[in-house]
Amino acid sequence: MNRYVDPTEQLVTEIFVRDIRKSTAFYRRLGFGLVRDDGDFVELAWEGHRLFLDERTDMGPVPDTVQANVRVMVPDVDRYWELAREMGARVLAPIQDKSYGLRDFAIADPDGFAVRFATRLEDEG
């Protein structure tokens, strides 16, 4: 069976944000690359996988609870944990070895959407 599109384009997360500049700066600091900036719509990438930011200035307040997260696999999760701490990001789940075979943590972006960074435990050390 032939693929309709490249796997990195097959499933893309789009996040609605209140302040496109603030959100873009947050994700760029974490290491996402800028692909396209149309003012109120930004396309970012992580190793070819896309993340869309769509500005919606009429959104209500940032929710108290997180509705979803996007996971990013990295070779050294502790390095990203330190970066998140330097950034002053709101921690949703501190770094920890998990029973499902990952060492991970989760932080909130400026609009309360969660970003989880993880490394396979067998890759550690």
State the separation between the terminal residues, measured CA to CA: 39 Å
Q: How much is the average pLDDT?
A: 94
The helix tally amounts to: 3
Number of beta strands: 8
How do the strands and helices of this protein lay out in sequence?
Blueprint (H helix, E strand, L loop, with lengths): L6 H4 L2 E5 L2 H11 L2 E5 L3 E6 L2 E7 L13 E5 L3 H11 L2 E8 L4 E7 L5 E7 L5
Parallel strand pairs: 1-4, 5-8
Antiparallel strand pairs: 2-3, 3-4, 6-7, 7-8
Features:
about 40% strand, Signal recognition particle alu RNA binding heterodimer, srp9/1, about 20% helix, 8 strands, four-stranded mixed beta sheet, alpha/beta, globular, 2 domains, about 120 residues, 2,3-Dihydroxybiphenyl 1,2-Dioxygenase, domain 1, single chain
Task: Give an overview of the whole structure.
With 125 residues, this protein is of the alpha/beta class. The chain has two domains: 1-57, 2,3-Dihydroxybiphenyl 1,2-Dioxygenase, domain 1, CATH 3.10.180; 66-125, Signal recognition particle alu RNA binding heterodimer, srp9/1 (2-Layer Sandwich), CATH 3.30.720.110. It is 21% helix and 40% strand. It is built from three helices and eight strands. Strands 1-4-3-2 form a four-stranded mixed β-sheet. It has a four-stranded mixed β-sheet with strand order 5-8-7-6, with helices on one face. A hairpin with a 4-residue loop joins β6 (90-97) and β7. The protein is globular. The model has no long low-confidence stretch (mean pLDDT 94).
